[in-house]
């Protein structure tokens, strides 16, 4: 009989994380480029449709080839990631599958099938279908690619900021109770707009870079200049919109994930009018003492972090130590207390399940009221204890400390 030790289990977890991270990294190296390149192909194809000039047809075909290469790699890695949700993270998929699975299913059924259907017409429909239908297929491919990003980012945003759900005490699963809240979460909308606009800027830079090489080699002058013109306008407009979504990203991060913001900025001790380190050499976390400068050196801009996060130069930005130790002045609960409250929620769930197992109907009904938002005791328990359910599974507050240097440099 084989008994898996704690070390063995952690090794499986770490390998699962590494495998998924590698797949995700390869996926994201190629997908953002396809988001914008598909739109640029559609714009070029529109030029061909309007003018009938064979030059635009040849130009469109060239960029379609580069789009197709990236599209194929994105599809291959994306399908693997879908399977890894069920293999590497099967317990997670069970616990939140009712919510997390919905946008992924919509992405596959609606967006992926849309682009998968029309991408073939886009590539092979020249002189086989009417020009109008062929142009429509190119635009539908571009729309499908970006709709895929929408639903994937809705799922990702929900992981960062869970909304629109209730906990089913009988199945011990989170279940969706508001699709609207999940799909239209401010985090989801911002993630989608920021990611897609970033992909648009990336594709514009990519097209300009390829064309610049042609100009340096004194080849395909008209092709290069016309492509640069379209990509430049497309990229500039996307960049202007990107500023707004980027500003919103930092504010949402401070609102819903203050620990992540603190780690990204290397902020250990919170401050009013927090400065921002633009460039610095971060010390290892175990060498940073409370109140000590966490950087060996750095270029700082006073109050900038407060301005970016709250649009207020004197606003308080919580640091890692504040979020773990707590700060009564700024209404920050110590992480240790959150863990105690979470453990109480875990214990009450265990008591309920044991009562059901033992056939103790009276105790089960009484405990079930604690998990119901419809009862007075349930409202209090859910807001005061079950809210910290996840903290109840932590062994120590050290598990809340992120890899600051890695996040800061990224």
Summarize it:
This protein has 410 residues and is mainly α. The chain is 70% helix and 6% strand.
* Average residue-wise pLDDT: 91
Count of alpha and pi helical runs: 14
Spans of at least 5 consecutive residues with low confidence = 1-5
Q: Note the beta-strand portion.
A: 5-15%
Percent of residues in helices: over 70%
Overall number of strands: 6
Shape: globular
Terminus-to-terminus distance: 44 Å
Q: What order do the helices and strands follow?
A: HHHHEEHHHHEEEHEHHHHH
Biggest sheet, in brief? 2 strands, antiparallel
Our Rg estimate from Cα atoms comes to 26 Å
Quickly give the structural class: mainly alpha
**What's the arrangement of strands in the largest beta sheet?**
1-2
Textual characterization of the structure:
- The protein contains 14 helices and six strands.
- The chain has helices at 6-51, 54-87, 90-124, 131-160, 179-183, 186-216, 221-256, 258-265, 304-310, 320-325, 335-358, 361-370, 376-384, 404-409; strands at 165-168, 173-176, 271-272, 276-282, 295-301, 316-317.
- Helix 1 packs antiparallel against helix 4 (131-160).
List the helices and strands and how they pair.
Elements: H1 6-51, H2 54-87, H3 90-124, H4 131-160, E1 165-168, E2 173-176, H5 179-183, H6 186-216, H7 221-256, H8 258-265, E3 271-272, E4 276-282, E5 295-301, H9 304-310, E6 316-317, H10 320-325, H11 335-358, H12 361-370, H13 376-384, H14 404-409
Antiparallel strand pairs: 1-2, 3-6, 4-5
């Amino acid at each position: 009989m084989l008994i898996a030790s704690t070390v063995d289990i952690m090794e499986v977890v770490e390998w699962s994380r590494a495998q998924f991270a590698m797949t995700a990294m390869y996926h994201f190296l190629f997908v953002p480029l396809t988001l914008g390149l598909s739109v640029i192909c559609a714009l070029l194809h529109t030029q061909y449709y309007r003018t009938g000039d064979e030059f635009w047809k040849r130009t469109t075909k060239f960029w379609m080839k580069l789009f197709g290469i990236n599209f194929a790699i994105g599809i291959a890695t994306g399908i693997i990631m879908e399977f890894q949700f069920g293999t590497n993270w099967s317990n997670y998929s069970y616990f939140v599958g009712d919510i997390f699975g919905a946008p992924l299913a919509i992405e596959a059924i609606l967006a992926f099938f849309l682009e998968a259907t029309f991408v073939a017409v886009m590539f092979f429909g020249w002189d086989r279908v009417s020009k109008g239908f062929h142009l429509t297929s190119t635009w539908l491919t571009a729309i499908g690619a970006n709709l895929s990003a929408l639903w994937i980012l809705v799922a990702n945003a929900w992981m960062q900021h869970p909304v629109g759900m209730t906990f089913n005490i009988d199945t011990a699963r989170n279940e969706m109770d508001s699709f609207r809240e999940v799909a239209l979460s401010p985090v989801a909308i911002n993630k989608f707009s920021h990611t897609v606009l970033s992909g648009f800027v990336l594709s514009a830079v990519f097209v300009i870079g390829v064309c610049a090489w042609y100009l340096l080699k004194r080849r395909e002058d008209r092709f290069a200049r016309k492509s640069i013109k379209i990509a430049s306008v497309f990229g500039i407009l996307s960049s202007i919109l990107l500023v707004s979504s980027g500003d919103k990203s930092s504010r949402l991060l401070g609102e819903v994930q203050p620990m992540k913001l603190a780690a990204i900025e290397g902020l250990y001790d919170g401050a009013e009018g927090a400065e921002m380190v633009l460039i610095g050499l971060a010390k290892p976390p175990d060498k940073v003492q409370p109140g000590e400068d966490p950087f060996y050196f750095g270029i700082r801009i006073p109050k900038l972090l407060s301005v970016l996060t709250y649009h207020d130069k004197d606003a308080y930005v919580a640091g890692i130590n504040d979020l773990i130790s707590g700060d009564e002045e700024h209404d920050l609960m110590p992480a240790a207390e959150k863990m105690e409250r979470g453990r109480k929620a875990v214990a009450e769930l265990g008591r309920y399940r044991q009562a059901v197992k033992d056939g103790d109907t009276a105790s089960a009904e009484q405990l079930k009221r604690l998990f119901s938002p419809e009862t007075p005791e349930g409202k209090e328990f859910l807001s005061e204890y079950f809210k910290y359910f996840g903290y109840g599974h932590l062994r120590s507050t050290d598990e809340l400390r992120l890899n600051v240097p890695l996040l800061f440099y990224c």
